Amino acid sequence: xxxxxxxxxxxxxxxxxxxxxxxxxxxxxxxxxxxxxxxxxxxxxxxxxxxxxxxxxxxxxxxxxxxxxxxxxxxxxxxxxxxxxxxxxxxxxxxxxxxxxxxxxxxxxxxxxxxxxxxxxxxxxxxxxxxxxxxxxxxxxxxxxxxxxxxxxxxxxxxxxxxxxxxxxxxxxxxxxxxxxxxxxxxxxxxxxxxxxxxxxxxxxxxxxxxxxxxxxxxxxxxxxxxxxxxxxxxxxxxxxxxxxxxxxxxxxxxxxxxxxxxxxxxxxxxxxxxxxxxxxxxxxxxxxxxxxxxxxxxxxxxxxxxxxxxxxxxxxxxxxxxxxxxxxxxxxxxxxxxxxxxxxxxxxxxxxxxxxxxxxxxxxxxxxxxxxxxxxxxxxxxxxxxxxxxxxxx
Length: 395
Known about the structure:
Blueprint: H1 12-25, H2 29-42, H3 47-59, H4 63-76, H5 81-93, H6 99-107, H7 117-147, H8 155-164, H9 197-202, H10 204-214, E1 223-224, E2 246-253, E3 256-257, H11 259-262, H12 266-273, E4 287-292, E5 296-301, E6 308-316, E7 321-325, E8 328-330, E9 338-340, E10 346-350, E11 356-364, H13 370-386
Antiparallel strand pairs: 1-2, 2-3, 2-4, 4-11, 5-10, 6-9, 6-11, 7-8, 7-10
Helix pairs in contact: 1-2, 2-3, 3-4, 4-5, 5-6, 5-7, 6-7, 7-8
């Protein structure tokens, strides 16, 4: 083919594209469809041409042909955002499942600032459709899961559902020093693992009374929780090193009873003594009142080992305090204890103008057998015998 009227020669493909463009501009979509179909046969690798053909087919009311054209383009470029967005829209118009298709397109979308207003609006609408779809699907799956799950504790089945729906990130244990294989990645452990929890919570009034007895205006009995030598690479904890904004009133530290403090808190020590704390000479257990001063944040970090969990019993909790472990964020409630795996990334904050205090103790990970616990204690003892300086790390 040639175009003598233009005074120059055009290739067959160029002429087909030109005639298709003219037809589109004149809104002769049937003609545009014919020219674009022929052009796509000549050069099937141009995704934009397949999208133009899909648009022409859509304009003539042939949605099935439009979907076929989009799919032909996606075979050449499966991650093409515009093709994926058009595909989702076509499925919606055809009354077919489309929410997941919108999610795929959204996952490959460029920044909204790079989109023209019409495309940005279409993408926003698609995102909303998918969010509504997920909300309905989650409710249906939860109803099914809970109907088949005995008891009131639905943590595992809910997480199974949320992971499937990609509502949660899969955090993994990252202990700084000691990893025991086979223990689950659970942020806050279900209460069924701790038959002693309710009795421990019942001691809250007595413990709180003792706490108030050791708190003076300057919190002189509290030492900086982060207290490392200045030459050590403590990274994100540097602003809190030697800083009383995050303080600890130690009752048991590295397995040693701190008599000057513990003697002032006999009811607290009696309550702690009933818990399944790990006993490792020169390392564990640990127990303390942890005080976070106003406008103080503890940065994201992970703990030393997954062989034990950390228990919080909230004592003094002003508003605007929070605690995140992995995917789960909670507020503290006075007298309501919880146990969490501190080898999953966690952080805490006190955005109030008042002091926040919790009682912190460690307990054995409930998934460990007595034999496994004994093995861990024996190995830790051997580690210390070989290198006594390592005991300062704790369990």
